[in-house]
Amino acid sequence: MCNLMRKLILKTLHLPKYFSLPPTFSLSQKSFLSNVSFLENAYENAKAYCKGKKPPPDVDVDGVFATNELDLDKVSVYGFDYDYTLACYKESVDHLIYNLGRETLVRKLKYPSDIMKLNYEPGFAVRGLHFDIGKGLLLKVDSFHQIQLGCVYRGLTPLSDEDVLNLYGQHYIPADYLESYVHNGSQQGSSKMAHLADLFSVPEMSLLCNTTEYFVNNNLDYHPDILFRDVKSAVQSIHPVMHQTVQKNPEDYLEKDPLLELFFDRLINAGKKLFLVTNSPFNFVNKGMQYLIGEHWRDIFDVIIVQARKPKFFTDENRPFRVYDLHQQDHVWDKVHNLEKGRVYCEGNVRQLQGMTGWKGRSVLYFGDHPYTDLADASLVHGWKTGAIIKELTSEIKTLNKSEFKWHVNWLQVLQQLIEEHQDVEDEPSQQLIKHWIGERDELRKETKHVFNKQFGSLFRTYHNPTYFSRRLFRFADVYTSNVTNLLRFSPKHTFYARRGALPHEYRSWFV
Question: CATH number of the domain at 73-88+254-384, please?
Fold first, then answer.
């Protein structure tokens, strides 16, 4: 065959440059795609092409990643949550929450005493999962509301794909079953599914799954709805004890960042205003910040608000600020007319904060770890710029940077393109070869999942789609990073630009 004809066929079929037609190929054949030797040759050429490519560069572990353009020069006010934003916790906090919740289940709610023998399972769950309250299942959902098969657990036991399809009838979960809804201006959670979107929920999931596994293994009748609500109630009720324990020995539970005070000094020297809005009580925050910064930490912030009860802080306009008396360690009844530096306030709402300070809209950048409680209303309703602190980014990016992972992901993409290009073959031998490729693809997808978390994979992806958590994060956060002090690497006038990703219909017109 002449070279010109060969080029025309390749162009017509949109085959990548690493595909080559067999030299003995004849135009008289009804379908050259049915030629097994051609498919095998295409496969070997594709693998050789992939192996010959230089792997992509490493991702910066301490990077700041933009989902929307953010010009720091236009930001005059920086706000912060406390838990998992300024205060990053060690794994010891997970064990503490789990153990206190377990004790409450047994001693106060009269669950079987053997549950005290069930220990916390580090690394079992990731945040961002959903719990089906009625069915008693912990599962992972993607951005299209599809269940990721292989990531559905009853207790500590995975459900087969067949069991999942029998329970749900399909891979898809309807929006009204999965999501919350708005009622009288306030967002309400779904009564059927709970989205476990913060890091404090990880030990709660472990306690829930361990207890479920105990009931199932011992053939004890239980109601999943009751178990879920009891575990949730138990974990919520232990927060005062957890706070007291952390306050006594903060060094055992908090990760001290030596750059935190330097980060605040940089902002203050650049003329920025700083405020703190947290749901935690003052004494807990005070002890933590004293350990992280020092006794003078309150001098850093222009406004300090504790027990804010977010997300109500962003949605309820009828909750006035109250002064917290540092000597009496209690609220006082005086009406708050303005917010003074050095004083501590409780409750309140964002409308009053904006009215008393003039801090509004895109001039405010608020950092938090929870996509809903911290970022959603601040961004969508009040127009603030928002930054998400995602602690798990550190380990996720370290995994992305491993050479074996890079090879698997790149070969997975190439192999998937091979399957897509040749899936319409008609002869039986070629169909069997395509099925073999699909089997290899499925194994690659499992491997790239397990390296993040054996049970549930990455926080950010299902096998290929973004997770439900990712979808929310990218919608509500302008930037995200693993630690607020990562911003020290950038000028207070720096602009973060969102990358222009190729849309599906743009892919072939790009150098990607």
Answer: 3.40.50.1000
